[in-house]
Design a protein that fits this description.
The protein is an alpha+beta fold. It has one domain. The chain is 16% helix and 40% strand. The protein has one helix and seven strands, in the order αβββββββ. The protein has a four-stranded antiparallel sheet with strand order 4-5-6-7, with no helix packed on it. A hairpin with a 6-residue loop joins β2 and β3. The protein is globular.
C-alpha cells in the first residue's frame, strides 16, 4: 500500500512540471518521466516511476512498477542509475529520461 506522502509527492511533481512550462511534450507517447525511485524491499525490489501524461486535459499522473499496465500505458523497463525508462503506449514504445 502506498502511503499518502508518496501520492502527494507524485502530485507535486506533476504540478511542478506544469508550472515550469513543461505542459507539452514531444514524445510519441505524450508521456514525460516525472520521477524514478530506486528498487527497495518495500516496492518489490523494482524501481517505481511517476509518468506524466500531457496528452490528458488536465495532465494526469501514473505511478507504475515494471510490467504494470494502466490506461494502456506499460512500464517495460526502468533504470534508476541511468534515470531512464522504457514505456509502451499502444503500438508506440519510447525511452524517457528525467528532464527530457
Amino acid at each position: 500500500m502506498r502511503n499518502r506522502f508518496q501520492i502527494h509527492s507524485a502530485a507535486a511533481i506533476a504540478l511542478f512540471l506544469v508550472l515550469m512550462g513543461c505542459s507539452k511534450t514531444s514524445t510519441p507517447t505524450g508521456l514525460q518521466l516525472g520521477a524514478i525511485s530506486p528498487a527497495s524491499p518495500g516496492n518489490g525490489n523494482v524501481p517505481e516511476v511517476v509518468l506524466i501524461d500531457f496528452d490528458a486535459d488536465p495532465p494526469k499522473q501514473y505511478r507504475l512498477s515494471i510490467g504494470e499496465i494502466v490506461d494502456g500505458i506499460e512500464l517495460v523497463e526502468a533504470d534508476y542509475s541511468d534515470k531512464s525508462v522504457l514505456v509502451r503506449r499502444g503500438e508506440k514504445e519510447v525511452e524517457l529520461r528525467i528532464g527530457e
